[in-house]
Amino acid sequence: MKTVKSNVHYHIGNEPETDMYGEVLHGLQQEKKFISPKYFYDKKGSELFEAITMLSEYYPTRTELLILNKYKHEMAKAIGSDTALVEFGSGSSEKVRTLLEAMPELKEYVPIDISKDFLYQSARALSMEYPHLDVHAVSADYTDKFEMPELSSKRKAVFFPGSTIGNFEPQERMNFLKMTAEFLKPNGGLLIGVDMKKDHAVLNAAYNDNKGITSQFNTNLLNRLNRELLANFDLEKFKHHAFYHAEKGRIEMHLVSLINQMITIGDKNISFSEGETIHTENSYKFTIKEFQHIAKACGFTPKQVWCDDKNWFSMHYLVVE
């Protein structure tokens, strides 16, 4: 019986150590309470986010896909041949399929994601669709240093769609981009999705949909704390609040306490006054010039930019020498 060689390989890039209880408690004990948005994504949270991407008000996902479909051949040409395509936060690897269609000569694809089981499942599915492609699935937190598998390609290009860069705080963003520039040396490239500044009504609607799914996504965070950290949040006593902060150039998401109340998390008490909030996420928006200025400060040279017809979303190709 003939043995078919598998074209998918699995690697551990790093082993993220997360102290969810310690991090959440620290954030809730601050004068301005906050919780990291990374804790949105339990199973239910991930399902809700997928539903958000399908909403009519939520333009980023469909707009980025329109740009990818329209300009995929230009993007493929910019990335060039003899390049390994590395995707940060690959998830289901759906968007990259559009790019792969335009890159039939690509030999190596490296999806990197923190969710090991989902990563391996997605990598296996993609490897069966693209049998000519060597798929190296790396389980890692891509915002920290990680071990890369040995590759045969001469250079690397990172694919970082989804405007995730907007969720980083300014110093975190600088650190991440500088680390990515080092990772790509020598002669690598970065294809990155960036959400743009636009009419405030469009931005506010995207995070306050009529079906209330974004509200469910935000409050589900409290469900997760109740389940995993033995907290006792009453979801009826908090409400979703999202708005565009023009001065800071970002959408802010909060959970607002509707009354004076005391909650427990583990063996700690946390008091809330009426109207006090938990800041759960920021999503920064950029003009093309603003983002290029940031990229240059982090060691990149901007090469090409692609936008939709409304100039709502941009995709940048940056290179590092």
TrEMBL record:
Transmembrane segments: none annotated. It is an enzyme of class 2 (transferase). Residues 23-318 form the Histidine-specific methyltransferase SAM-dependent domain. Keywords: Methyltransferase, Transferase. GO terms for molecular function: L-histidine N(alpha)-methyltransferase activity. The keyword Zinc does not apply. Its EC number is 2.1.1.44. InterPro entries: EgtD, EgtD_Methyltrsf_superfamily, MeTrfase_dom, MeTrfase_EgtD-like, SAM-dependent_MTases_sf. One of its GO terms (biological process) is methylation. This is L-histidine N(Alpha)-methyltransferase. It comes from Fictibacillus nanhaiensis. The gene is egtD.
